[in-house]
Amino acid sequence: MTVDNLNLEIPKLIFNASGELIILPSLTSSKDDFDFFQGKSNIINKKLKYRFSDCTEWIEFPSTQEMHKVLNGIGNIDNFLAEFDGVPFEGMTVRLFNPETKLWSIYWSDSNTGVLDKPVIGSFEKKVGHFFSRDIYEGKKVIQLFRWDARDKNNPIWSQAMSVDNGETWEWNWYMYMTKVK
After folding, report:
1. Alpha-carbon distance 180 to 42, whole Å?
2. I need a surface site. Which of 9, 15, 89, 112 has the fewest CB within 10 A?
3. What is the pLDDT of residue 11?
C-alpha cells in the first residue's frame, strides 16, 4: 500500500492584505461532491507518530466509517469508529454545503473532546477536494489541509497535512485508505 497521494498538486493559497486565508470554490463545486462516500467503509489508517519532528514512523490501525446525507442533501454526517490501546474511540464529521458560496465546511468532533473543531473549508475539482483552515497545533500557528481523493469512488483516500509557513511546505501526517463495503 502506498503511503501517500502526494502526486496531486495542492492549490496555491490566497491571502488578503491582512493575512486572512481566502478560499474560493471550484467552478464545479456542488452539494453532490461527497456522494461517493455514502454508506459504510472499512479503513486502513496511517498516522504519523509525531508531528513537526522529522518523524518517519507511521502508526497503522483499522477503523470503520459510515456516512449518510442530511438536510435534504446539502449536508452529511459520518461516524468514525476505531480502537486505541484497547479503548473504543468514536469520531463524528459534519459536512455542510453552502449553496450561495459553493463551499463545503467540514467540522470534526470525537469522544475524547466532545467539541466541534474549527471547520476546514473548500471544494472539489475533478474528484479531488481540498479543504483549509488556520489553526493552532501544540502552540504553533498552522494551516491545516484535508484532501479527499475520490477519483476511485470505491477506494477513496483522505489525507491531512499541516504547514507552519503559510503553505510553502506541508507535512503529511495522516492517511485513510477506504474500501466501500455497502
Report:
1. 6
2. 9
3. 83
